[in-house]
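Q: Convert this sequence to structure tokens.
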Amino acid sequence: FFSGLFMAYIAYRWMYPDTWLSAADMLNKGLGATNTVVLLTSSLTMVFAVREIEINRPKMAIRYLIATILFGVVFLGIKAVEYAHKFESGILPGAHYMGDGVEGMAGLFFGIYFALTGLHAIHVIIGMGLLLWLVLKVKAGKVNHENHALAENIGLYWHLVDLVWIFLFPMLYLVR
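A:
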């Protein structure tokens, strides 16, 4: 699904380069950069959590998993602030776009922006649910130093979600 949205972004960026540049200038690069740091840090805490499980330190693993979840909450909170500002400014997807300052197909740009970042946010929420489930499994002793494949797989999912953001941030916020 992300691949199709990436391809739509590329095709329309090629078709409407001036609109894409003007619309990208309306995004808050500071919030996007902050979210990048938040997600990269969450990847680090996820690595630490898996390692703590592998070396049989479940209490520390749980702390790192909770930290990873909290970084997800921070990411979503920043994204919510960003969305709220856009909604208040009339920066909406498609035909609902009523913002000032961008000529052409700005609604198309923001339609793709909201689709990409919204889909990413859904994956963050799913990841947070998986992390919470993992906390419960570690607490119950069902995921431990002898049986940690579930932790590794959830960690891989979390890293994939972070990797998608690593593509989204420059593509949407830093386009030139």
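The chain has a mean pLDDT of 94.
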